[in-house]
Amino acid sequence: MSISRKDVEHLARLAHLELDAAEAERLAADLDSILDYARRLAAVPEDVGEGDVPSPGTPLREDEPGPRLPPGAAVAPAPERSNDLFKVPPAIGGA
């Protein structure tokens, strides 16, 4: 089943949307590709074993801390600060 421009125009009327012909054509193609993707996902067997799932393309790396800023360097350009902390106005209540 594919989505036609006529289907999109009907849905647009129901949703009180105004679409020109080019928008309706583009949305029909977009919706059709979304439904095609959903059909392909539905075809994937549910009993896929853990070893059957492909590994991600990007290998993971260990997190290692990088160089640190000297104390106070990050807050140095801040308009207001208190020691090595940013000073900001209160978010709730206060004056």
Description:
- This protein is mostly helical and 95 residues long.
- It has a domain at 5-42: Orthogonal Bundle (Histone, subunit A).
- Helices cover 34% and strands 4% of the residues.
- It contains 2 helices and 2 strands.
- The protein has helices at residues 5-14, 21-42, and strands at residues 81-82, 85-86.
- The protein has a two-stranded antiparallel sheet.
- Strand 1 (81-82) and strand 2 (85-86) form a beta hairpin.
- Helix 1 crosses helix 2.
- The longest helix is centred in the N-terminal third of the chain and has 22 residues, at 21-42.
- The radius of gyration is 27 Å and the shape is flat.
- The termini are far apart.
- The model has no long low-confidence stretch (mean pLDDT 84).
CATH topology name of one domain: Histone, subunit A
Mean pLDDT over all positions: 84
The helix tally amounts to 2
Shape: flat
Please summarize the sheet with the most strands.
2 strands, antiparallel
Order of helices and strands: HHEE
Oligomer: single chain
Strand order of the largest sheet: 1-2
Roughly what percent helix?
25-40%
Beta-strand proportion: under 5%
User: Rg to the nearest angstrom?
Assistant: 27 Å
Low-confidence segments, given as residue ranges, are none
By secondary-structure content and strand pairing, the structural class works out as: mainly alpha
CATH class of one domain: Mainly Alpha
The count of DSSP E runs of length 2 or more, i.e. the number of strands, is 2
CATH-level-2 architecture of one domain: Orthogonal Bundle
How far the N terminus sits from the C terminus, by CA atoms, comes to 61 Å
